[in-house]
Amino acid sequence: MDQTSRLLLVLGVITLASILGLIWRTMQGRAKLLKSGLQVDLKELGATKDGLPVTEFGERITFLQFSSEFCATCKSTARVFGELENHSSDVLHIEVDITNRLDLANKYNILQTPTTLVLDRRGVVQSRIGGAPKQNTLEEQLGTFVI
Amino acid sequence: MAKPQIDPRGPRFGAAITATALAVTIYLGLDASTEAAAFALLLVLTGLFAIGAIFGTSKHPYAWLFKTLVRPRLGAPTELEDAAPPQFAQAVGLFVAGVGVVLHLAGVEYGLVAAAAAAFVASFLNSVFNYCLGCQMYLGLKRLKVIR
């Protein structure tokens, strides 16, 4: 194969990877509305917070974050939600490691981590955020739940 | 027990070198006269992926390069990350590069180039977009029972 064709093919692969990356970055961290009306079962989740089991949802909004073992962005995502939680008393953040909880991964159809489900005060799923949430996604979500 | 922590910029620096080497591999692999060189390069990359996958990215030669040449110029990182996710990515890289080696040895035309291109896309996304293979693939592979 001549040199020009080879260079063009390599450039083509680089271009393809760049387009994929841009699409991926755009899609990540956006909230998708869910109309399933799925009620989250706290007992089944088995979530703990500061060593104690979580028994109540946030008074206004709950961010239920699913994490896994090989997830680099889960930690920073948890920190962002933690700050939100500290900022307002009616916001709750729950993090569940589903590395060994495939039942939960199947039930909530989790493919990537972090995936965050946004729950209303009764624990009904309102939307889901795949990947690290974008700043405006969080503001939108919090705005939706202003009482 | 605290999980081992690393500077998250280290693996991204390493992925940039890997992506560049894979681009060269694709270029060399496309012509019969340089195919042997492409294969040799892919073998080296497969070996490097194996080091990262088995011993962790902190034992990888690129980590040493990063520590001695790059990090002193960057200053301290704002946050640290778990060492496990990049190690998972190295294992995926090892698998894909290994497939390329096998395809080449089996005489499959452009098998080497196809594998190098797949590995290139992953390491390019990792380096440029901070794409995390472990976040995207681990759970899916587990649900499909590809890994336990």
UniProtKB/TrEMBL annotation, chain A:
Domain Thioredoxin stretches: 60-142
Keywords: Membrane, Transmembrane, Transmembrane helix
Transmembrane segments: 6-24
Originating organism: freshwater metagenome
Protein's name according to its UniProt entry: Unannotated protein
Keyword Membrane (UniProt): yes
InterPro entries: Thioredoxin-like_sf, Thioredoxin_domain
UniProtKB/TrEMBL annotation, chain B:
Pfam families the record matches: DUF4395
TM spans (from-to): 12-30, 36-57, 88-106, 112-133
Keywords: Membrane, Transmembrane, Transmembrane helix
Domain DUF4395: 6-143
This protein's name: Unannotated protein
Annotated organism of origin: freshwater metagenome
